C-alpha cells in the first residue's frame, strides 16, 4: 500500500463514520452545525446529503484498496472535492457571522485533508 492509498483509506473511513453518525443521530449532528430539521423533507434531505453522500464518498475513497489502478483518479477526485469544500467554506466564513465551533472544526479538518492530499499527490512516485 502506498502513501496515497493510506491517505485515501484514512479519509474514506472518516467519511464512512461521519455518514453513519449523521444517519443514526441526525438531530445531534444537524444541531452541531446549525441546521434545523424541519418536517420530513428536512430530515430526508439531511439523511440523503449528510448520510448517503458522505457514506458514498467514503466508499469511493476506499476503492483503491480493491482496485489499485483507481488510486490516481480517486486521489484527484478527493483533491477536487476538498478544494471545493475549502473554497465554499472560506466564502461562507467571509459572508456570514456567528460561525459555530463545530463548523470551525470542520473547516480545519477540510484544510488538513486538502493539504495532506496535495502533499500525498505531489510526492507520489511517478512511473513511466
UniProtKB/TrEMBL annotation:
Residue ranges crossing the lipid bilayer per the database entry: 6-25, 46-67, 73-97, 104-123
Keyword vocabulary terms for this entry: Membrane, Transmembrane, Transmembrane helix
The superkingdom of the source organism is Bacteria
Q: What is this protein called?
A: DUF4345 domain-containing protein
Amino acid at each position: 500500500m502506498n502513501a496515497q492509498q493510506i491517505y485515501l483509506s484514512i479519509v474514506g473511513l472518516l467519511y464512512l463514520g461521519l455518514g453513519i453518525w449523521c444517519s443514526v443521530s441526525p438531530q445531534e449532528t444537524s444541531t452541531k452545525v446549525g441546521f434545523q430539521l424541519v418536517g420530513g423533507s428536512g430530515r430526508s434531505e439531511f439523511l440523503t446529503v449528510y448520510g448517503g453522500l458522505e457514506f458514498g464518498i467514503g466508499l469511493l475513497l476506499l476503492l483503491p484498496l480493491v482496485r489499485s489502478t483507481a488510486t490516481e483518479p480517486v486521489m484527484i477526485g478527493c483533491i477536487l472535492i476538498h478544494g471545493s469544500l475549502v473554497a465554499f467554506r472560506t466564502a461562507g466564513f467571509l459572508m456570514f457571522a456567528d460561525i459555530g465551533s463545530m463548523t470551525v472544526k470542520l473547516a480545519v479538518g477540510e484544510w488538513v485533508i486538502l493539504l495532506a492530499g496535495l502533499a500525498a499527490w505531489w510526492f507520489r512516485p511517478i512511473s513511466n
